[in-house]
Amino acid sequence: MVPAPGALQQCVGISPPVLVDQPDGCKPAEEVSTNCVPGIFDALVRPASLMMDSECQHVLHGGSMRNISHGIHTVEIDTLLPEFLVFIPLGCPGFQRIHAMKKFAYCKVVLATSLVWVLLDMFLLLYFSECNKCDEKKERGLPAGDVPEPIQKPHEGPGEMGKPVVIPKEEQEKMKEMFKINQFNLMASEMIALNRSLPDVRLEGCKTKVYADNLPTTSVVIVFHNEAWSTLLRTVHSVINRSPRHMLEEIVLVDDASERDFLKRPLESYVKKLKVPVHVIRMEQRSGLIRARLKGAAASKGQVITFLDAHCECTVGWLEPLLARIKADRRTVVCPIIDVISDDTFEYMAGSDMTYGGFNWKLNFRWYPVPQREMDRRKGDRTLPVRTPTMAGGLFSIDRDYFQEIGTYDAGMDIWGGENLEISFRVGVTKVDYGDISSRLGLRRKLQCKPFSWYLENVYPDSQIPRHYFSLGEIRNVETNQCLDNMARKENEKVGIFNCHGMGGNQVFSYTANKEIRTDDLCLDVSKLNGPVTMLKCHHLKGNQLWEYDPVKLTLLHVNSNQCLDKATEEDSQVPSIRDCTGSRSQQWLLRNVTLPEIF
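Above: the chain's sequence. Below: its structure in token form.
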């Protein structure tokens, strides 16, 4: 039986004795106390439990007595949980009743206990609320505080599904200051989860392709220098979350002498918790992208090496096509379609599958439309790979052994920007089956490099680079001593004229065998009499793009209008135009290294 609050009793067997009332049917306390003491201490050892003694039932509300003693042992009830049960003999034959506690004392105990629970609940609520905020910060990629746990599941938030992040007006000034740190909107990046979701923009035919399970494994090598925590880790998470585990051997992060503290021990602690092996390698001094990539490649173990930039995001199905091409032919170097992430809003924008890599006469990498010959080869199947003469360089996969065979990167390159073209040329001119080459010289027993002209004619026949020309270099006006300059302008804009600097660049023009004056893939064009000279796409149909150079008179005649190229006018001091031919010095032009007949 359970006593009412006013009849709460205690079973004791120690002195001094307590005054008790003698209820009907109870024996003196000293006759039964020894049977009850074990039950008391049993319950104190195991709080919040209910046990049945052999003869008596015991109940005690924690906090109703200051202590319970047995011999030399004392147990302070205040040190136990606020609520627990112990056993006290109640209603046993011959047992005596202890004086009932006063009701107000009992109420005080109940109130005190309740207050303890309320305070404990408030503490737990505040603790876990604050902890949730910590987790949110960690998931957003902030490197402050404890090392965040690896993120496994996407969640709702800014930038999800590749949507742009809009910064409130009141944060615009802070955003601009943070932009200077990495030259992109760092504030927006830190608002986005490290494993944000992205749309699947693949062609429907690509989504249904099935790849073999025994594709080669790959090591992903990522070089960084003072990279933002959020963009670097978002790259890593995208690789892990969207790569088949059995194909991803490891991720190798190569630190090219970063100075930011969060890229030291915090980064190492973070990546140790990821489900894919991630190794951090440190360069002893700033060495540049090429040498850092070479060190990462040397430390990797996969059959294929995949190089990625430190601020990219892989989409679903990105890896399998790359490895499948290399499995089919290990001498294939494969690049993915490179989409765009806005540096301002971090919006994800799908790239075109109808472009491929090329370069201009200044050896600048450029994107060009896929030529008709390549579209014909694929027979309209856009899911087939595009053969490209050059690659962007930031993202590609290559067989480990083949990478060694072609000489890897040129370790003498100090600055990035030309390594992609250099390795493209090497792959293009050495990947030729010569058949029986026993009669050739010793250096031509395996693979022999061809002249660059062979590369342009066979590997890159769609190149906009003029292979036949009369002159290549500056075009200088005799009277003003100024040179034609494209002023970094685009198609349909006017060509300029500027002080000659002899550095090439925007002042390099070619006078081709087709009698075009070209700058990159644009030709000088005039559409009306006395009109300005504009730059339009070369159409190779002559017309308004046909010019005749007289090496004796030093004039450039626009054939369609029968007018000569003249210096800039007073109305527009930086734009040349055509005028009636007068033979004046303002219409005389010196072409750099001009040779007639044409140069090959």
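Confidence is low (pLDDT under 50) at residues 1-101, 130-153, 431-444.
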